[in-house]
Amino acid sequence: MNVGLSIVILKITAMKKNILYLSLFFMQIIIAQSYSEFIHIDQFGYLPDAEKIAVISDPQIGFNSDTSFSPSGTLELRNATTDEVVYSGAPVIWRNGETHTQSGDKGWWFDFSDYTIDGEYYIHDPVNTESSAIFKIQENVYQDVLKAAARMFYYNRCNSAKALPYAESPWVDDVDFLNPLQDANCRNIFDRDNISLEKDLSGGWFDAGDYNKYVTFAYTAINDLLWAYEENPQAFGENWNIPESGNGIPDIIDEIKWELDWLIKMNNSDGSTIIKMGSQNHNENVISPPSLNTDQRFYGNTCTSASIAIAGMFAHAAQVFKNISSLTTYAQELEQRAIQSWSYVVPFLNSNTLETECDNGEIISGDADWDATKQKENAVAVAVHLYRLTNDDAYNQYVINNYTIISGIQNNFFDFNTMPISDALLLYTVLPGADSSASQEIIQAYSNDSRNNYSGYYGTTDNDLYLAHAPDWAYDWGSNSSKSVTSNLNTLIGKRGINPGSSDSYIGYSGRAIHYFHGVNPIGKTYLTNMSAYDAENSSNEMFHTWFSDGTDWDSASSSLYGPPPGFLVGGPNANFSVQSLSPPYGQPGQKSFLDFNTNWPFNSWEITEPGIYYQAAYIRMLANHVTNLEETLGVTDNFVSKKRIQIYPNPANEYLNMIGVKPGNKIYIHDMLGKEIFSTIAKTIDEISVPTDILNSGVYIIRVEKDQSGIEAYTFLKR
Question: What pLDDT was estimated at residue 675?
Fold first, then answer.
């Protein structure tokens, strides 16, 4: 039997305490917080030539207001291996000591952007003896993070077994929701005894933390993933370790196709489209893991909003897929379905009879309806994609006749929650044959909005102590999605050259937003789950997800057997959290309205930590624009593993385990999973050595390297 392993590296320094939790096939290392809570850095790190600003905080308002801090006049950037001071400077007080209302903190900025040498570092306050978490400066610092985040979609696949070697062993599960009267023979909820209406609606992704699937909710996710690939295709290869890896198609395209295959099943031959499918009650199909659920599943009504969404997703995907030789036939099918779905919905658009109450809650939960305004505005975006795809002037004319109905054009304000519309409108302005008058009006509207910046979310400013400003109303349900989409809107405006003199500032916002997600926020949290193996000292331990729910083996990365998989983006701070008896998150400044928990009703953790395919896709699009050197991307399920300084291979091992990165004098130990020492040696040569493993029985072992001042690194490996 093949065993999938999670490879974890442990570094022990004076700044960290470590507790080791071992199970037969999985080792998880929990690092208790002993780094400074007042020094906020990106816990993964920084690109060498990027802006690098650590935020030093002095809490004034909120749950941590009983603490205080004032940095010394000089802060140090120290090499984490040698403890050498490589850079120093004075922190600059933020806005003359003003309290930042969204975080409740006063603070300072420590800018070390001038330092560009690869390595591992930490920020140190020599007077207060406070140190930050360790981070990297490295060209490929985000590759593994991107891969972990992208694999969220694999774990959220419906009707697919999570099997070795694609799933790491803690998250293996059998095929789900293919029992009788589930997804492969799904019944109409309004005529549930009619066998003639059964449909095969298998495939697709779980939408969020529940097991249901929605067409309209997939719209922004597919849009962002397709644009992520179009904007930076070199960020994506075939190394996500999904079942399709190695088929000659970038894994992001394979993952998008998994969802599109399901969407095709939801799309009828006349272009009408079913809006959602899932369970009929909150107490059905709520067991963990997904494979144990046997309750009946249903599909609901068709709806014009679903047809508009389908037409847009299929048209955009057809444009991308037709350039991949093995997918040209599939792209043609998508194009035909996009055209048919558009033709189906046009009479509803022309007669103003769009369907707005298709989702009546018979299928639980999440209202998938779009109001008439949203349908009309998105129809303009769909027409842009169809025009780009087909060059048919009828679609061009639809854009010309209708683009002015979009509220952003009318009032020179573009809500970041309408990103597919912004993507399409600015795409239109560069298409051959686009109407020059319409294009100019579109460009002017975006120019006015970004230049006036009444919302405050354009460009790099000092509006936010934690660097990536968003308006107060952004810190609502799904604020992490709002922050990602704001970043993507800034990048789009910058790359399109809307206000050329400010392009660098707009694009620069994206880097600051990434750092916000990775720890430059008032609670010092990396908002991705279970990322300690990827060097995040304070990642999210829990999320509201039915599979990884409270009390299960996958409950918490800090206290349960396994915790959730790495890389799920949680919803984020929510200043409108509804449970007044739970503070935090209730009653906190917007950026502090967060709690790392997954407790169900009546504490409603879904308002804070539920993930979503749309949150994830927006984050991936943002991060992908900062990823290069694809060939260097590695991950915990690869045969060759690189996480810190030492690399081990092959894993599983046979007669020898090779180690790269050791130094003479390093002590090497092998232990079994009960902690018994089996073998020890001292490295006598530099860089690469081979450790014999033929003396071991088949099973899982820990190899530990003591590196003197630079600490300990520990790994699990399998002996065949």
Answer: 66
Is the distance from CB of 643 to CB of 7 less than 8 angstroms?
yes
d(CA 579, CA 572): 16
How many beta carbons lie within 10 A of that of residue 108, not counting itself?
23
Q: What 3-state DSSP class applies to 281? A: coil
Query: 567 φ, ψ to 5°?
Result: 95, 0
**Three-state DSSP state, 412:** coil
Let me know: does 250 contact 236? Beta carbons within 8 Å: yes
Site of tokens 């804070």: 608
- Longest CA span, the chain: 81
Write a three-state SS string for 623-674. Answer: HHCCCCCHHHCCCCCCCCEECCCCEEECCCECCEEEEEEECCCCEEEEEECC
Token pair recorded at residue 707:
């590196």
| 691 neighbors 714 (Cβ within 8 angstroms) | no
| Nearest to 548, CA basis, from 294, 28, 171, 154 | 171
Residue 73 exposed, middle or buried by CB count within 10 Å (0-12, 13-18, 19+): exposed
pTM metric for this prediction? 0.85
Structure-block tokens of residue 213: 């699937």
Handedness of CA 505, 508, 510, 514 (dihedral sign): negative
Residue 706 has what pLDDT?
79
**Which residues of the chain are under the pLDDT cut of 70?**
1-33, 629-645, 647, 673-675, 685-688, 707-714
The sign of the CA dihedral 81, 85, 86, 87 is positive
- Residue 283 CB contacts under 8 Å (≥ 6 apart), including other chains: none
Contacts of 676 (CB under 8 A, 6+ apart): none
Is the peptide bond preceding residue 652 cis, with omega within 30 degrees of 0? Answer: yes
Question: Residue 707's pLDDT is what?
Answer: 67
Note the Cα 354 to chain centre separation in Å: 33
Residue with tokens 């206000």: 499
Nearest to 468 by CA among 613, 622, 640: 622
